[in-house]
């Protein structure tokens, strides 16, 4: 993807992107007859699940791609990277042992922000696509105890997603960097 296109898409607010993909899906269905999305809450169709997940992941993905691109350019100009390249170390070695190790702290720090972006997008996606999920507990009956349970479940899911991503990064490091 071209850098200018990525920069343009990343300045668009997430709820606008969600609406855009929703209108794009409806337009594709009207012109081609191919159903990419089923909004009915009673449908057992797979498109009811994959489309909200795809739309939900766009905002955090754009955020993390921009972050990694920016840090990659900054770290790539550092003296230790240029020294490693000048010594004739392989590109894979330089990428893993110099670039990745120095980008990882920024990635881990902003991973929490990316997960919080996806949680905020969750409210929009569940409302617009008529998907009953965690926000049903929060906005459903407006009873204090149910709202607290919904927020605790949301916090638990957020922590679980963060822990899973950290675990995959740990496996990546153990498998490739510290072989």
Structural write-up:
This protein has seven helices and no strands. With 179 residues, the chain is mainly alpha-helical. 80% of the residues lie in helices and 0% in strands. The protein has helices at 3-11, 14-32, 47-76, 79-86, 91-128, 134-139, 144-177. α3 packs antiparallel against α5 (91-128) and α4 (79-86) packs across α5.
Describe the structure concisely for a colleague:
With 179 residues, this protein is mainly α. The chain is built from seven helices and no strands.
SSE topology sketch:
Elements: H1 3-11, H2 14-32, H3 47-76, H4 79-86, H5 91-128, H6 134-139, H7 144-177
Helix pairs in contact: 1-3, 2-3, 2-5, 3-5, 4-5, 5-7
- Written as H for each helix and E for each strand, in order along the chain, the element string is HHHHHHH
| Assembly state of the chains shown | single chain
Proportion of helical residues: over 70%
**Mean model confidence by pLDDT:** 83
Output the radius of gyration: 20 Å
The global form is: globular
Strand count: 0
As a percent range, the share of strand residues is under 5%
Main sheet properties: none
Structural class: mainly alpha
> What is the number of helices?
7
Residue stretches low in confidence (pLDDT < 50, at least 5 long) are: none
Distance between the termini: 32 Å
Features:
179 residues; mainly alpha; 7 helices; 80% helix; 0% strand; globular
């Amino acid at each position: 993807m071209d850098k200018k296109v990525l920069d343009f898409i990343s300045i668009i607010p997430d709820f606008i992107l969600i609406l855009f993909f929703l209108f794009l899906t409806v337009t594709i269905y009207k012109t081609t007859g191919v159903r990419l999305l089923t909004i009915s809450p009673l449908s057992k169709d797979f498109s009811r699940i994959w489309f909200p997940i795809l739309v939900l992941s766009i905002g955090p993905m754009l955020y993390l791609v921009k972050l990694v691109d920016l840090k990659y350019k900054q770290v790539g100009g550092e003296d230790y990277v240029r020294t490693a390249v000048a010594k004739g170390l392989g590109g894979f070695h330089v990428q893993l042992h110099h670039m990745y190790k120095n980008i990882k702290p920024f990635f881990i720090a902003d991973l929490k922000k990316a997960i919080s972006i996806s949680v905020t997008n969750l409210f929009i996606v569940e409302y617009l696509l008529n998907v009953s999920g965690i926000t049903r507990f929060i906005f459903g009956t407006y009873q204090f105890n149910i709202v607290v349970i919904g927020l605790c479940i949301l916090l638990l899911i957020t922590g679980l997603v963060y822990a899973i991503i950290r675990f995959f990064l740990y496996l990546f490091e153990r498998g490739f960097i510290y072989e």
